[in-house]
Write a structure and sequence with these properties.
Layout (H helix, E strand, L loop, with lengths): L1 H19 L6 H19 L9 H40 L5 E5 L2 E4 L5 E7 L6 E6 L5 E6 L6 E7 L4 E3 L2 E2 L13 E11 L2 E5 L1 E12 L5 E5 L3 E4 L5 E2 L1
Antiparallel strand pairs: 1-11, 1-14, 2-9, 3-6, 3-11, 4-5, 4-9, 6-7, 7-8, 9-10, 11-12, 12-13
Helix pairs in contact: 1-2
């Protein structure tokens, strides 16, 4: 009696194996089902006739296979979604090419007819913020006194001649009557805090030359004069 039951189950599973091999199925799924069914048939062929597998055991195996297959499909779908998301993000980032972003830096390029924008993070209010500007040869070319500034972020703009702090044009003129020419300039910023002269970090504008996607999927901006910078390190999109 046990032999007959095993033979019937083997025949039924063989028919199911043939039925699942259709031309419309995806190749990955077909191979997965085929391998699973072959294992079940081999298990039936080699089981003890006097102690056959219970029907519930086969049902449990089928249920387990279905769960694993469903998780695999979910992972594949999520991977496709991730790739699509990264492609869309890279496409959007490509629109930054030719534009300016602000990143942590002490030097940057001044272009003809344009300006350098930047920011300073003041840890406390101060009666004076001093900005020293150096050319690419290291020579001091201008000194700007920004006067009293409150604690927090201080924004500035400089075009080689005029200097603005938080949107207001300072009553200051460059020592160069016609302004400074295009080129690379370094900004050294200090402030008097608690009676001591404190060096402050700056963030400066830089042009985006190109955008690439790293091996880890992160977007990398290639900035003029700065090299490669992660998108997450950008402080402001100008």
């Amino acid at each position: 009696m046990s032999d007959v039951s095993a033979a019937s189950a083997t025949s039924g599973l063989s028919d199911l194996q043939i039925a699942t091999k259709t031309e419309d199925e995806k190749k990955d799924n077909e191979l997965g089902q085929s391998a699973f069914l072959e294992l079940m048939i081999a298990q039936l062929n080699n089981q003890d006739p006097l102690n056959p597998e219970e029907n519930g055991d086969f049902i449990a195996q089928l249920a387990q296979f279905s769960s694993v297959e469903g998780i695999d499909r979910l992972n594949n779908n999520f991977e496709g979604f991730t790739n699509s998301f990264m492609s869309n993000q890279a496409l959007q980032a490509s629109s930054l090419v030719g534009r300016s972003v602000t990143v942590s830096a002490s030097s940057t390029q001044l272009y003809a007819g344009s300006f350098v924008s930047g920011s300073i993070d003041l840890p406390a209010s101060t009666s004076d913020v001093q900005v020293n500007i150096y050319d690419d040869a290291g020579a001091l070319v201008d000194q700007v006194s920004m006067g009293y500034q409150s604690q927090g972020e201080v924004l500035f703009r400089w075009d080689g001649y005029n200097f603005e702090a938080n949107g207001e044009l300072l009553d200051w003129q460059s020592s160069h009557e016609e302004g400074l020419p295009p080129g690379e300039y370094r900004f050294d910023v200090t402030a008097s805090i608690d009676g001591e002269t404190t060096q402050l970090d700056t963030a400066l504008s830089a042009n985006v030359n190109s955008v690439t996607v790293g091996q880890d999927g992160k977007l990398i901006l290639n900035l003029a004069g700065h090299g490669s910078v992660n998108m997450s390190d950008v402080k402001q999109f100008n």
